[in-house]
Design a protein that fits this description.
single chain, 328 residues, alpha/beta, four-stranded mixed β-sheet, 10 helices, 13 strands, binds acetyl coenzyme *A
Length: 328
């Protein structure tokens, strides 16, 4: 079995910054409510078709090539995680392949595990490399949640945002992916979902009023996230026969600052070892973890080839939870 490692990190966000104040002119809300309930101060929102999911993911891929010196034709596979593809089919990964000219990428496909998508995508990417059949794999997470948002629903529109991030995985000398933990609970579909593609054909009439908007029961999602993410991290640490003290940073889905604060407390870890950046990016679903990782690289908080251990952990619709322990 081959070892996989993260060779480069990158992110790309839409140009347009939308403040809480601007949203308070759209729906009945305030900057104070949004900040105290979620930690979010502003978010990036796509304002042109070039900032659709494939466009954002393409920019991330180009940045990864620049950082690593790897060329598009060296890429063997592209995994895109998204709940907001440009099209039902082909996959966003296929569109990215076309955009970047990754002519030798055999497997190009999308993964939908909602906000836990990046962690699921990393697990898939790691396995593509460890199989020995792929040497260079792009794992890209790109979301344009603004097109799945009901802009009249104040309970969701103040949280959701657009953005993309990702990594280049290559073969490494040492074992870098130390442990992983995944869990899904399909019984909880009603607490968080993104609409329903109803059966609609000459023999079956679909409801006229359905919309493909993200709906959630915020409090129940909050409780699920706190309980299941901390359990998943504990299982992960146990599997790796490690301790939370071995982990330099916990980089978890940036949905809500209060979930992160409570998770740190529950795990007995100092708050400053949980990276937080949702105040400037909002909740970008599966893109939030790779955007955070890319920020941390830029700020010098984490560095490749150091052996420093990080935990990534996401939760989302499904309900899905996924965590990984990675040595950089
Ligand atoms: N501005 C002002 N008031 C609001 C707003 C708003 N934007 N949105 C809701 N409210 C009101 C509601 O109408 C309700 O009023 P009521 O009590 O009179 O009925 C009240 O605020 C809701 O209060 P709480 O339920 O106590 O709010 P809470 O503290 O739970 O915060 C929040 C709500 C922010 C949604 C929180 O529950 C949360 O973050 N949950 C988790 C969401 C999450 O993590 N989603 C991630 C998955 S989705 C994805 O990642 C794509």
């Amino acid at each position: 079995m081959k070892n996989a490692k993260i060779a480069a990190f990158a992110s790309h966000s839409p140009e347009k910054v939308v403040s809480n104040e601007e949203l308070s002119r759209l729906v009945d809300t305030t900057d104070e409510w949004i900040q105290t309930r979620s930690g979010i101060r502003s978010r990036r929102i796509s304002s042109s078709e070039s900032e659709n999911s494939s466009g954002l993911a393409t920019q991330v891929a180009l940045a990864l090539f620049e950082k690593s010196g790897v060329k598009p034709e060296e890429i063997d596979a592209i995994v895109v995680t998204t709940v907001t593809p440009d099209m039902n089919t082909p996959s966003t990964a296929a569109l990215v392949q076309r955009n970047i000219g990754a002519v030798n990428a055999g497997m190009c496909f999308d993964v939908n595990a909602a906000c836990a998508g990046f962690v699921y995508g990393m697990s898939v990417g790691e396995k593509l490399i460890s199989s020995g059949k792929h040497k260079k794999v792009l794992v890209l997470s790109a979301e344009v949640l603004s097109k799945a948002t009901d802009w009249l629903d104040r309970s969701t529109c103040v949280l959701l945002a657009d953005g993309a991030g990702g990594v280049l995985l290559t073969e490494g000398d040492e074992k870098s992916f130390l442990a992983e933990d995944f869990k899904s609970d399909g019984n909880k579909i009603d607490i968080l979902h993104g609409g329903n593609f109803h059966v609609s054909n000459p023999w079956c009439e679909a409801p006229q009023d359905f919309k493909l908007y993200i709906r959630m029961k915020g409090r129940e999602v909050f409780d699920f996230a706190l309980k299941e993410m901390t359990k998943s991290i504990n299982r992960l640490i146990e599997e790796a026969k490690a301790s939370v003290n071995d982990v330099k940073y916990f980089v978890v889905h940036q949905a809500n600052a209060r979930i992160i604060q409570a998770a740190a407390k529950k795990l007995g870890v100092a708050q400053d070892r949980f990276y937080v950046n949702m105040h400037e990016y909002g909740n970008t679903s599966s893109a939030s973890i790779p955007i955070a990782l890319s920020d941390m690289i830029k700020k010098g908080l984490i560095k490749s080839e150091t052996g420093d251990k990080i935990v990534i952990s996401g939760f989302g619709a499904g309900m899905t939870v996924g965590s990984m322990l990675i040595a950089l």
